[in-house]
Design goal:
By secondary structure, the chain is an all-alpha fold. Helix content is 72%, strand content 0%.
Length: 75
C-alpha cells in the first residue's frame, strides 16, 4: 500500500491465534469498520441520507455476519 492509503485506511496487526480463518475474518472486520466509518462521515456531512446510510451499513453487517458464520462456524 502507498503511504497515502496507509494513512487513510490504516490496518492493525492481528495479535491472536494465527489461523487462516481468523486472519481472513480479521481482515473482513477491519474492512467493515473502515467502510462504516466512511458511511457515517458521509451521512454526518449531509452527503448521504440517513436511510441510505442505514441500508448500506445493514448490508455490510450481513456480509460480515455471513463471513463469521462460514469462517468461524458462528451462528
Amino acid at each position: 500500500m502507498s503511504d497515502r492509503l496507509n494513512f487513510l485506511y490504516p490496518r492493525c496487526r492481528y495479535h491472536g491465534h494465527k489461523k487462516p480463518e481468523y486472519l481472513d475474518f480479521n481482515a473482513n472486520l477491519q474492512e467493515f469498520a473502515q467502510r462504516v466509518t466512511t458511511i457515517c462521515n458521509l451521512q454526518t456531512s449531509g452527503k448521504l441520507p440517513p436511510e441510505q446510510a442505514y441500508d448500506q451499513i445493514q448490508d455490510l453487517w450481513q456480509q460480515l455476519h455471513y463471513s463469521g458464520q462460514h469462517l468461524l462456524d458462528i451462528d
